């Protein structure tokens, strides 16, 4: 371990010393591939401690190799990230480790201060990064700025800008690409457009379709397609949805029977669409594809869920996250066979008066 401890102090003029450092094993006496096999099994909550051991360990834990290895061998762990707005009307970001025995939300520091009052920002996870996109303010028009939070490095940086300035738009990930769709833009922006971000080229590509409308209310990815629930249009007085077909690259109107029950935040678990209807209490609904009907799964106490809520799924569990980050966990793993709701643990709310804007999951 002496070489590991001293590697920060090596002189760049001493070639022999540099070679020794480069070849220093991750764990003394073991080949690096065996060391990786061992280290990759350390729980995610200890990764920050591992980065303090040495520069080689820090670089490994922060690398794409580490992320790919853990995902390939199903060692990755999913944490939940919540974008909130506090009583001072400022945005903040919290993270929850569902496997932790303490089950508590923790504040993520370092959010760029000049964006904390923006509204209508997109919030999405791709790879090991969270993205905050666009947004606007009382004295600020829609912006094309994008900021990324690297969960491995615990840091925020500004990244490639959107092709179009957007505010109050849909944001989804599909096929390892990030989509920013519709919304309100500047006077020069096209509300019938969408942008796609490809991390391989670190750039955005702009597209257009007349079926996209500015009034975006919710979005999901299901069966390899993006669904967007829209507001009322000039043509129809009721809420409708559009669906993106990747094969044709076009947007079409979604089936009316499916859209009719989409009346709240939605999440997809194992290809099944669940919606939390908050119109009268809180009731979890499920879309049954074969019978083409909405089935009530169960009612939840509004005192526990604290609406308005957002939904995310980790495995076969739905996390219902409401005001003050109050959290209820619902197991839907065998819902089609059992036909009843399995409510799990509740996570205590925070003292502060937070409204949850959006929730996303990120796995490392």
TrEMBL record:
Residues 30-69 form the F-box domain. Gene3D superfamilies: Kelch-type beta propeller. Signal peptide: none annotated. Keywords: Kelch repeat, Repeat. It holds the Pfam family F-box. InterPro entries: F-box-like_dom_sf, F-box_dom, Kelch-typ_b-propeller, Kelch_1, Kelch_FKB95. PANTHER family: F-BOX DOMAIN-CONTAINING PROTEIN, OS02G0202900 PROTEIN. This is F-box domain-containing protein.
